[in-house]
Amino acid sequence: MGLVPDAYLPYPLLEQPEAVERLGLVSYDVDFVDTSLDLRPYTRAVLRRVCTGTQAVAWTAFEGTFHYDELLTDQVADQVYGYCTTGAEPVVEWDVAALRSERWRRGVAGARAALDALLSPDRSL
């Protein structure tokens, strides 16, 4: 792939709900100065790496769309531009019309269902 971000900043997530905290949710801000780059392959590769070999759900979203109560919900589905779950290929979309489609919302809802399964108190770690 060969792309390297110009900035890569982890952000601590404050006041995490207990179910989220035990999973190790982490937020990163990844910046590229060159706005002409096609970042779809990079995004797919990053999501694939996170979701390979472990129980995980990962997603990419536009800045400012994060709130614990809205993770991967309909309210923010059109702001999520990539997601993956353990054992599945990452899905990445850049087209605004596609991000607003019912099909995209259903895909994000599937990722949310996988997240809910991980958050379940019945899940043994």
Walk me through this protein's architecture.
With 125 residues, the protein is α+β, with helices and mostly antiparallel strands. It contains four helices and five strands, in the order βαβαβββαα. The chain has helices at 18-21, 40-51, 96-99, 102-119, and strands spanning 7-11, 27-31, 57-61, 80-85, 91-92. The strands form two sheets. A three-stranded antiparallel β-sheet has the order 3-4-5, sandwiched between helices. Strands 1-2 form a two-stranded antiparallel sheet. Strand 4 (80-85) and strand 5 (91-92) form a beta hairpin. The longest helix has 18 residues, at 102-119. The chain is globular, with a radius of gyration of 14 Å. The protein starts with 6 loop residues before the first strand and ends in a 6-residue tail after the last helix.
Helix coverage percent: 25-40%
Given helix and strand content, the structural type is alpha+beta
The H/E string reads EHEHEEEHH
Overall pLDDT metric: 88
What coarse outline follows from CA principal-axis ratios? globular
Question: What proportion strand?
Answer: 15-25%
- How far apart lie the N and C ends? 34 Å
Counted beta strands: 5
The radius of gyration computed from the alpha-carbon positions, rounded to a whole number of angstroms, is 14 Å
What's the tally of helices? Answer: 4
What can be said about the biggest beta sheet?
Answer: 3 strands, antiparallel
- Largest sheet, spatial ordering of strands: 3-4-5
Low-confidence stretches: none
